[in-house]
Design goal:
GO terms for molecular function: FMN binding; oxidoreductase activity, acting on NAD(P)H. Keywords: Electron transport, Flavoprotein, FMN, Transport. Its cofactor is FMN. This is Flavodoxin-like domain-containing protein. Low-potential electron donor to a number of redox enzymes. The chain is of the alpha/beta class and 183 residues long. The protein is 44% helix and 18% strand. It folds into two domains: 145 residues, Rossmann fold (3-Layer(aba) Sandwich), CATH 3.40.50.360; 37 residues, no CATH class. Strands 1, 2, 3, 4, 5 and 6 form a six-stranded parallel β-sheet that branches.
Length: 183
């Protein structure tokens, strides 16, 4: 599975979360690409099976300035079905804890993204071992959510190959797929 992790970090807490998620995805065998969000073209998210986006929250619940260009580019294309999971670090005692994540989540839903319904919000003062565990649990659950459709497709493909009624159809489908690879 091809996974993208984009993040914006000011104090380093969100970056540490991104690294923990990256390590977990590598441990389960995913191809992982990680980059700062302010250098990412939004169209690139279409190339990945699952994307993780992490933000810190600026001021009283605002979007960080490094993510403004990314946020504005969301309106320029159709992202129907592109799967995204959101995470961030912040002060959870504030009135709008990790408010930037909520802003980005609403915008992504409007643009057609399939946004994972669980958002990882970690208090910046939490112990390191708790943060690592929470990031790993979140990554596992998001990966399970993001790969559901592929598992179904794989199951159908195996049934077609192993059932004598569909063997010819599976053979022809494989030849067509080999001649016209999906890019």
């Amino acid at each position: 599975m091809k996974v993208f992790i984009g993040y914006v970090s000011l104090s380093g807490n969100t970056e540490k979360m991104a690294v923990n998620i990256k390590n977990r995805m590598l441990a389960v065998g995913c191809d992982v690409y990680m980059e700062r969000l302010d250098t990412v073209e939004v169209e690139a998210l279409k190339e990945f099976d699952l994307s993780f986006i992490g933000l810190y929250t600026w001021n009283q619940g605002g979007l960080p300035y490094e993510a403004n260009e990314f946020y504005e580019e969301l309106d320029q294309a159709n992202f129907h079905g592109v799967k995204v999971a959101l995470f961030g670090a912040g002060d959870l005692s504030q009135p709008k804890p990790c408010g930037a994540i909520n802003i980005l989540s609403n915008k992504m839903k409007q643009c057609g993204f399939a946004v994972y319904d669980r958002v990882l919000k970690i208090d910046q003062g939490a112990p390191a071992h708790d943060r690592v565990r929470q990031c790993e649990d979140f990554a596992d659950r998001a990966l399970s959510w993001g790969s559901k459709r592929k598992k179904w497709r794989y199951l159908v493909w195996n049934r077609m190959q192993n059932n004598h009624k569909y063997r010819k159809t599976a053979y022809l489908l494989r030849r067509v797929m080999d001649d016209y690879p999906i890019k």
